[in-house]
Give the backbone structure.
Amino acid sequence: MRRSRAFIPTAKEAPSDATLPSHKFLIRGGFINQQGAGLYNFMPLGKIVLEKIRTIVKEELDLAGCSEVQLSFVTPISLWERSGRCEAMGKEMLRIKDRHENEFVLSPTNEEAMVELVKNRVTSYKDLPLNLYQINTKFRDEARPRYGLLRGREFLMKDGYSFHSSIEDMVREFNLMEETYKKIFTRLGLDFRVVAADSGAIGGDGSKEFHVLADSGEDTIIVCESCDYGANIETIDEFKDKIDELNEKSYEDLKELKVAQKCSCGANLHFKKGIEVGHIFQLGTKYSAALEANFSDENGRSKPFEMATFGIGVSRLVAAVIEQNHDENGCIWTKATAPYMVNIMISNIKDVNQVNLGEELYEKLQDSHVEVMLDDGKERFGFKMKDAELIGFPYTVIIGKELEGGLVQIYDRRTKENTAINVSQVYDKIMELI
Ligand code: ATP
Ligand code: MG
């Protein structure tokens, strides 16, 4: 993409309600803009990042044997009345009426609709197991939409639902999804922990959350300093009465506090702040029984499906990457999430040699399928550099005055190091770096 053709409305100032780095930088960098409370538009850069994350999620799920579907975003309220969840969802579920006075909801989650889809279509144990997912818009009328994409009202979620003939098989799939989620978050380049979560009435190891470690996280978790054990404080008796108090505390304050309990491996436990980006849950027969979704087992007996559900906050992940990867100047995208890997900056657009080299390198990298931006804008060098920092391209090739001596610089956004390199070697160097 040529910068002169791109729509990247960067800004010096962030809106006054933007307190977190991801909220500030995603707006200032021209990735997203706010349409209303908890409602965001994705502009070209934001859309590229969102699609990259979506693609990685899809690739790993498909490899694990899941099938993608797409359910209607608007669901008849009758489905929710039958499952008995209308009350429990409360005001978070937005209800609407059509011209015939029929009531609908904007899907906040889709257990009911997915059970309904499978019911009477999957009738025998021979058709099981089955794991269906979608990556689709959700709407939750959150009491306090805030922090940009971290807590929106309209957001993109991957929601998956699996159907089984036995509890054992459901647990097998649950474990497979845990491994699959780990692959997804590892590919995204994130530092994360899997933690035991509150599984309400079901108990046991029935619920796990995936938290991206970040000082700004809304959740408080404890992690072991030695093994990979972690838990949401909600699950630990020691903290039962202090959950809100601890969640209010900043990471700096939490560091001062000691966790009395030791890990079962004997090592110390520490508080961390986390952003919940995934949640997997063993449901059992809660929804299948309520909605009478049954299959016949090997002996011809009718039984409700054993189920599990799996969620990933796809749009929240865009922000989580930045909460974990930024500095005072802007975004630092991981390789898997960067909207463009390379930015070629022509410092002086009036210098023919600079322009020619920029164009030549741009074409060569494009031919090699490298995601590359050519900054052919008329702005001054200082402005271009600030913009590149804010947007967070992993590498910027700076074509400047040194070109007279046959050199350009390669700037690494994460390390902030500049490396002078001979023009004849710049293509190979870039291919090696990315
Ligand atoms: P939270 O505790 O953060 O409100 P939740 O437990 O209600 O989330 P789930 O129902 O488990 O969320 O939804 C699955 C995933 O969807 C979450 O792990 C999270 O990543 C994402 N998600 C939930 N609510 C929002 C929101 N308001 N904005 C963006 N992403 C969200
Ligand atoms: Mg959750």
